[in-house]
Amino acid sequence: MGFSEVFGQEQIIKNLTMAIQKDRIAHAYIFDGSDGLGKGMMAMAFAQAIVCKNFRQDVCNACAACIKFHHNNHPDIMIIEPEGTSIKNKQIEAFQQDLQRKPYESRKKIYIIQQADQMTESAQNRLLKTLEEPPAYAVVILISINANRFLPTIRSRCQMIKFHRLGEQQIHVFLKEKYGMSSEASKIYAAFSDGIIGKAIQLKESPDFLEKREAAIGVIEKVLEGDPLSVFPMLEFFESNKEDVYELLDFMLTWFRDILILKETASEDFLINLDKKTMLEECGLRIGYQQISHIIKIIERTKQDIKANVNFQLVIENMLLSMQEV
């Protein structure tokens, strides 16, 4: 494990490393940010670093503490996960009872509470008592996606650490280096990751992702043929893939964005659908700048209308017909 396994959060790693080296580890942290940014991995890496006997810039992975960590049986590291949908009052009570016992082997005793922002209010009030007067050896790490769900009194007693989304280029490089992916493939996954490295990995492992992209390209091809009768089978396609509609529309947006880039620069450096360059060039010969810009606006307006709960079938039908009329 160790900090070296966490990608893209270098400043957080630097701050936590310095806290260990200078013996300024806080009693409580909130690791806050979207799912997939590495909060859980960072918490585990931090816990291992605290108990490692030979920590310098990172863990040694060789001492007795590290070996126990890797076997998930270090007595001074505990992980608390929700029972059902939330952390319950009884779980915090059990945590407090365990906290009364001093560390077995390390100077610190680390508790990682997963999905801590899903904690019930009574559980938060109970936790607050511990955060107000924690033992000197206690380190509590609260993992959350929305720190505003915590009571203000809990937030004020924790060191807040915000996990930020990464740049598309960072994820592109990570996928190439970590998984040996081609530049074409890594660009696609990075573009649709929303800056979340966990989502990029999830997309890479999803057998449906590229199939959906092919389906979206098929819709674009039919639309550009201009046959009004083709709208009805396409409507059925969107209805049957309603749960994935935003992803499908994003595929379509990136397609027309790529055509614009090719028209303006004749360069493939910034293409997302790099593996489809020939198809993009062929599409670009059939439509002009104004048409592409108008189609992009139509798709973006469609996304807004769906979010506003406008009738789904009506919105999609209007989008397809409007694109054909451009």
TrEMBL record:
InterPro entries: DNA_pol_HolB (IPR004622), DNA_pol_III_delta_C (IPR015199), DNA_Rep/Repair_Clamp_Loader (IPR050238), P-loop_NTPase (IPR027417). Its EC number is 2.7.7.7. The keyword Nucleotidyltransferase applies. It is an enzyme of class 2 (transferase). One of its GO terms (molecular function) is DNA binding. One of its GO terms (biological process) is DNA-templated DNA replication. This is DNA polymerase III subunit delta'.
